[in-house]
């Protein structure tokens, strides 16, 4: 459904001629005039025929959001076929229009509906304030990522699995205020979380990492140099992680033709909100790299000797048409970057082995970011019955209790998956890594391999994001600083800190020495900058703290004389006299085996742009 909302001073219309598909109307409907109306121009589309009720539901939500903002006196539904080139049948269109009218009236709104299928003249006066014109594409699908929030007719069972022992999730004795308890209650829909904006939103702006871009659609961010650096470091980190484990990097298109049956079926099954582009074709922006990877492998010649075959892509970007009201900061976006690996396995046994390895890889990323993940292991009842021991053994790799969800039947393309979530400051999960066993897509996308008996077979496919989206990794890191604010100074891991060492000269005559030290530090692949601004030392030290710089060196006459440097170490709040080599060694050891990139900003603070 395509919708154009206009907040108007008035709307007048007059019916002229009937088209062959016109609805019958009474005289009072032949013309009309409405003052202070929110006019909803809409075109019902082919796609909407599948789930009329779902579409109406989402339409009502959109109208509700708009009326909350602009407070119109009435709502006028105006069928306007010109909004779409893929119209539904007239019968369904009228049905949907009537449903929408009744639903709005039932909610106590004053609502009128302009006749369908007539040539009409109309006149509208748009109020012209920033919220007075909004266009929308509305789908029927109404579930959030990975099925959380989905209404269940046949609900799942939830347990806590600890060292091979199962306890009903409702009866488990959780450690007080543990993340596991918060996550379990969230899954069960019994938890309480605080309201409001998660603290990372303020931090991402304050630290000049990223900000909203009002000239784009909601949920698309602009990234400043420091944020871009962190993104690139994380991208390199995942690249190394998966390539070391045998994945082959590829890159594939961001949009796909919905006329392709396999793609539209998979998209439907995935249940995500599709982000569409209407040109001469109906295109969908990808929600992950699945299609691209599947098509590469479908066109390849594979034998059992190639398997498991792994391909990896960093999706800059992936797209989900999240609800406007749910889009927030780095946590829920309409455009995001997902590291996405697909493993093509010969059979279920090979996929289980590979799955276990990937669970270890996902868990490792939490360790590398120093972020606590809680784990939900999900499987269909059939899969669980057949692979119970394997599930118990795999859960043991986590070394702590995990949530186990048993689904009565398969609703998605997967039969088993493991989701890792960090908890945010408000007590809600940030869904990060995931591994999934897909038993459908091999066949659907025509991917085959030759088995040892020279016969063609469909592979089992694993979907894995070892970290979750890059944005959510940064989200978790920032939320963690807010959660721990009373215990430690907020900072990013040293290897992700935009400035790793800052040199502060006391006076102008110390700048040259500060630069010499900085040269030597930079030579060792450490990001260093020099606060050469004409400010008091106290202020520069406070600035370094605001910038979360892990190591700060103040240099004056004494340091020039002795070459012993006074260092403030943020993590331990220590002040220490150290030689330059020692500092360099300490920073390098904190970033060992992690990617490095050079400082993406002018080294002298006096030359920097203030982006905010
Ligand atoms: Zn995938």
Describe the 3D structure.
By secondary structure, the chain is of the alpha+beta class. It has three domains: 136 residues, D-tyrosyl-trna(Tyr) Deacylase, Chain: A (3-Layer(bba) Sandwich); 288 residues, BirA Bifunctional Protein, domain 2 (2-Layer Sandwich); 114 residues, Rossmann fold. The radius of gyration is 28 Å and the shape is globular.
Helix content: 25-40%
Number of domains: 3
Number of helices: 15
Overall mean confidence score, pLDDT:
92
Strand tally? 28
Query: What's the gyration radius in Å?
Result: 28 Å
CATH superfamily annotation of the largest domain? Bira Bifunctional Protein, Domain 2
CATH class of the largest domain: Alpha Beta
The small-molecule ligands in this entry are: zinc ion
Shape: globular
Query: What characterizes the major β-sheet?
Result: 10 strands, mixed
Structural key phrases:
3 domains, BirA Bifunctional Protein, domain 2, 10-stranded mixed sheet, Rossmann fold, binds zinc ion, single chain, 612 residues, 6-stranded mixed sheet, D-tyrosyl-trna(Tyr) Deacylase, Chain: A
Provide the fold topology.
Layout: E1 2-18, E2 31-43, H1 52-70, E3 74-79, H2 90-106, E4 111-113, E5 118-126, E6 133-137, E7 157-162, E8 165-168, H3 179-188, H4 200-206, E9 210-212, E10 221-223, H5 225-243, E11 248-249, E12 255-257, H6 261-270, E13 275-278, E14 282-285, H7 290-298, E15 309-319, E16 335-345, H8 348-369, E17 374-380, H9 381-396, E18 402-407, E19 414-423, E20 429-438, H10 441-444, E21 449-450, E22 456-457, E23 460-465, H11 470-483, E24 501-505, H12 511-523, E25 528-530, H13 537-546, E26 551-555, H14 557-562, E27 565-569, E28 574-578, H15 580-590
Parallel strand pairs: 2-3, 3-4, 11-15, 17-18, 24-25, 24-26
Antiparallel strand pairs: 1-2, 1-5, 1-6, 7-8, 7-18, 9-10, 12-14, 13-14, 15-16, 16-23, 17-19, 19-20, 20-23, 21-22, 26-27, 27-28
